[in-house]
From TrEMBL:
InterPro entries: ClpP/crotonase-like_dom_sf, DHNA-CoA_synthase_MenB, Enoyl-CoA_hyd/isom_CS, Enoyl-CoA_hydra/iso, Enoyl-CoA_hydra_C. It comes from the Bacteria. Substrate binds at residues 52, 96-100, 108, 140-144, 166, 172, 269, 284. It comes from Synechococcus lacustris str. Tous. The gene is menB. Converts o-succinylbenzoyl-CoA (OSB-CoA) to 1,4-dihydroxy-2-naphthoyl-CoA (DHNA-CoA). PROSITE patterns: ENOYL_COA_HYDRATASE. GO terms for biological process: menaquinone biosynthetic process; phylloquinone biosynthetic process. It catalyses: 2-succinylbenzoyl-CoA + H(+) = 1,4-dihydroxy-2-naphthoyl-CoA + H2O. The record marks 108, 269 as: Important for catalysis. One of its GO terms (molecular function) is 1,4-dihydroxy-2-naphthoyl-CoA synthase activity. Hydrogencarbonate binds at residues 165-167. This is 1,4-dihydroxy-2-naphthoyl-CoA synthase. The keyword Transcription regulation does not apply. Pathway: Quinol/quinone metabolism; 1,4-dihydroxy-2-naphthoate biosynthesis; 1,4-dihydroxy-2-naphthoate from chorismate: step 6/7; Cofactor biosynthesis; phylloquinone biosynthesis.
Length: 295
């Protein structure tokens, strides 16, 4: 565990324990909190503690909007993704998956009664956003909530964290990242056990199978996330961005290659060679690449 940070009063409580950052809240959301610090760290929290932070279509729309805002903010390098807690009954959750009470024929019904599966868009956004996303898991990360946690770059678990799948019990399954990425992370045998048996796994079991990076006391969870974020933020943003794209490229086919290629193009635009091509077009002349070596 990294060195302790000096605690200061949080603007408002998302998780227990003092948070060393001062947050500015953004967005006008109902189911989500988005907070930005002046240290390059954002915090996105699902705010449905009485439902163990289960997501309904509105929650997913708001999460997508919050992650998109963070994506467009060049001052932010790390996102802490968590769930508000405790609930009035003392229970904690990162996210208990899709809200079963709004599930109708064909999916989860939004406020107009239209079935939506937009959590899959959110999964891809978390995976492709060129910032480091750290899951802070207190309590349950179950079903689609476990998959959202899985798709974060890093995961820190509180001692009370519980992970698991329920799909085959509640008539659902995630045959996308929820299977393939899980198998990459914990291995084929364990991934099949998780889905076929629908057991629950505590924080230390999750650590042993490589599902989380570290287990910390509940009151230390948010601080630990900030410490990890601060370490990351000392490093080269370009290197971290390219590394994230590279980790995805291995598994995400052409979409993964596209992400990595986008980073390469971004770097190329900054070179004299790249600029000469553009300049020549603007000046209506042939480009002169004669000074560029064929390395
Ligand atoms: C999470 C629990 C283990 C917590 O247990 P406990 O601490 O005892 O609390 P409870 O008393 O059970 O719950 C408190 C309160 O919260 C409500 N609640 C909890 N989870 C949900 C939920 N998922 N939906 C709706 N409501 C929920 C609960 O009813 C209580 O409220 P009351 O008013 O007091 O009744 C336990 O709660 C639990 O097991 N929850 C269910 C977990 C679950 O099965 N989740 C759904 C899995 S399926 C999924 O997530 C779909 C994913 C998805 O969207 C998807 C992804 C990819 C492809 C396809 C799909 C797809 O659309 O299917």
């Amino acid at each position: 565990m990294a060195a302790a940070v000096e605690p200061t009063e949080p603007k408002r409580l998302v998780l227990p324990g003092n948070c060393p950052l001062v947050w500015q809240s953004q967005g006008n959301y109902q189911d989500v909190w988005l907070d930005i610090s002046d240290e390059g760290i954002a915090r996105i929290a699902i705010n449905r503690p009485e439902k163990r932070n289960a997501f309904r279509p509105r929650t997913v729309v708001e999460l997508y909007d919050a992650f998109s805002r963070v994506r467009e903010n060049p001052a932010i390098g790390v996102v802490l993704f968590t769930g508000v807690g405790p609930a009035a009954d003392g229970g904690y959750a990162f996210c208990a998956g899709g809200d079963q009470s709004v599930r109708g024929d064909g999916g989860y019904l939004d406020e107009e009664g239209v079935p939506r599966l937009n959590v899959l868009d959110l999964q891809r956004l978390i995976r492709s956003i060129p910032k480091v996303v750290i899951a802070l898991v207190a309590g349950y990360a179950i079903g689609g909530g476990q998959v959202l946690h899985l798709l974060c770059d890093l995961s820190l678990a509180a001692e009370n964290a519980q992970f698991g799948q329920t799909g085959p019990r509640v008539g659902s399954f995630d045959a996308g990242f929820g299977c393939s990425h899980l198998a990459r992370v914990v291995g084929q045998r364990k991934a099949r056990e998780i889905w076929f048996l629908c057991r629950r796994y505590n924080a230390h079991q999750a650590l042993a199978m490589g599902l989380v990076n570290e287990v910390v006391p509940l009151f230390q969870l948010q601080n630990e996330g900030v410490l990890w974020a601060r370490e990351i933020l000392q490093h080269s943003p370009t290197a971290i961005r390219c590394l994230k794209a590279a980790f995805n490229a291995e598994t995400d086919g052409m979409a993964g290659l596209q992400e990595l290629a986008g980073q390469a193009t971004h770097l190329f635009y900054k070179t004299e060679e790249g600029k000469e091509g553009q300049q020549a077009f603007i000046e209506k002349r042939n480009p002169d690449f004669s000074q560029v070596p064929w390395l």
